[in-house]
Amino acid sequence: MIKKLNRANAGVSISRPIKVLQFGEGNFLRAFVDWIIDILNEKSDFNGAIQIIQPIQQGMINLINDQNGLYHVILNGLMNGKKVNETRLITSVAGAMSPYQDFNKFLQLAENPDLQFIVSNTTEAGISFDAKDLSPTQLPNSFPGKLTALLYHRFLFFKGDPKKSLIIMPCELIDRNGSALKATILQYIKQWQLSQDFNNWIETHTTFCNTLVDRIVPGFPKENISEIHNQLGYSDNLVVTAEPFLLWVIEAPQKVRAQFPAEKTNLQIKFVSDLSAYRTRKVRILNGAHTAMVPVAYLMGFRTVRESIEDKVIGDYIRRVIYNEVIPTLDLPDEELKQFADDVLERFQNPYIKHELISIALNSISKFKTRVLPSILEYASRKHQLPPNLVFSLAALIRFYKGDFNGVNIPLQDSPDVLDFFGAVWGKESLTEISNLVLGNESFWGLNLNKISGLHESVTQYLKLIHEGKWKIPL
After folding, report:
1. In Å, what is the CA distance from 391 to each residue of 60, 343, 366, 371?
2. What CATH number should be reported for the domain holding residue 136?
3. Mind listing the pLDDT tens digit for each residue in 412-444?
4. Which residues are bridge partners to 270 per DSSP?
5. Which residues contact 301 (CB under 8 A, 6 or more apart)?
6. Considering only CA atoms, which of 146, 148, 53, 154 is closest in space to residue 113?
7. Could you tell me if 207 and 165 are in contact, meaning their C-beta atoms sit under 8 angstroms apart?
8. Per DSSP, what are the bridge partners of residue 408?
9. Are residues 265 and 387 both part of a single domain?
10. In a domain? residue 472
């Protein structure tokens, strides 16, 4: 018999003090932060619960409260060459609320003496200033505005006690997310003309951590949810599927380690003094391999990451890209870099995730600039020669943006100016001229790539081979 999932039916009676306020109730946070804290409660003396705050007007709080905060996380994938299928009942969430329904109740959450942490994931656009937010006593529209109002209420309630300041660990996918959130809060303090004492409390005592998060979370498994409910024995409308791999890099002072004892869990959670090298590693190895793979694999007839990486030609090509051309440009220890690369390739082969190449191809020009071009430039600087496999990917990218190959249409997705540019460029007859115009477009790359010794010649040579269907991927 399938029962409704709630604390009574699941026999979950333990009650923990709320130590974490979480802005965001989506799949990622529930399969990442809430999953981690559930393990923290099991493996350490953290003993804390999470209060979820819905950061926008519409959301999932009714579903969450209807299940008393309970839900299952199902991990599917590969780990150390073996298939992983694990299910965990998450009990770390106490409940959820919306500031839009009760702003005063939201502010009163700041009065909790046990509160230690704020976490968030409000999308990349979430950390932004909204000049229409007028006061900490009226519900602000933006997430940083809401957080400023909450922190100000806590500052007043505890009379500026430094010991009641909080540790803030945003998970938004932007560079230096903690610093960006702090800067936006300080902007609100100035806009709202709040006291200098509060400004000092934020500046001096509140800890803003820059973080890097990494876990693929496909989300709710609607295609086989009935089967999952039968296996669980519960009707769970909040099931989340995720890959086994997890990485959380937290740039934080020593005190955060003591209050958030993640090192006791054996999870991939790293506390560092500067996460820049880890961000570069992720962008260039994981994201860079994705972006370098797409045009090459797609033109060769593949459509998903898994089938591409399992093909010997493409698989070997991406391994050369990562191990021979990207890793030599990075500054972390070789052992760490190679282990991360091994994990990335295993993640690419996850049989439970169908990752379409065309979805990765969205805005490929800007992605190539940030994810792949730095590896080409750094390799050339260090080795005094060009990385042939990455250069081949650049040539394939130019051919990809013609919008068709072997009579098959390619559904390009990019900004109108990028698509218009390639539409005009591919009207030229000479591949040499096409290569010259693309590499010389400084609005794409931030510099004229024709000035890099040998790049125009190499790209043009590869472009001709690809265009003529004479695939000769560099070794």
Report:
1. 46, 24, 16, 13
2. 3.40.50.720
3. 999 999 999 999 999 998 999 999 999 999 999
4. 249
5. none
6. 154
7. yes
8. 405
9. no
10. no
pLDDT digits (tens, 9 = 90+) for 355-409: 999 999 999 999 999 999 999 999 999 999 999 999 999 999 999 999 999 999 9
Distances in Å between the Cα of 385 and the Cα atoms of 56, 134, 394 are 50, 56, 16
- The upper half-sphere exposure of residue 426, i.e. CA atoms within 13 Å in the direction of its Cβ, equals 17
User: For 113-140, how does the pLDDT look when each residue is reduced to its tens digit (9 = 90+)?
Assistant: 999 999 999 987 899 999 999 999 999 9
Cβ atoms of 59 and 97 closer than 8 Å:
no
**How many secondary structure helices (H) and strands (E) does the chain include?**
23, 16
Of 422, 68, 49, 423, residue with least CA distance to 236 = 68
CA distance 183 to 451: 38
Instruction: Name 130's Cβ contacts closer than 8 Å, sequence gap at least 6.
Output: 140, 141, 142, 145
Measured CA to CA in angstroms, residue 168 lies from 28, 41, 147, 415 at distances of 18, 19, 10, 35
Whether the per-residue pLDDT at 344 is higher than 90: the answer is yes
Query: To which residue do tokens 């890793």 refer?
Result: 327
Compute the distance between CA of residue 169 and CA of residue 137 in angstroms, rounded to an integer: 24
**CA-based torsion, 133, 135, 136, 137: positive or negative:** negative
Q: Could you tell me which of 242, 233, 243, 153 has the C-alpha nearest to residue 192?
A: 153
Identify the domain containing residue 31 by its residue range: 3-272
Q: Judge whether 281 lies within some domain.
A: no
CATH number at residue 446: 1.10.1040.10
| DSSP bridge partners of 249 | 212, 270
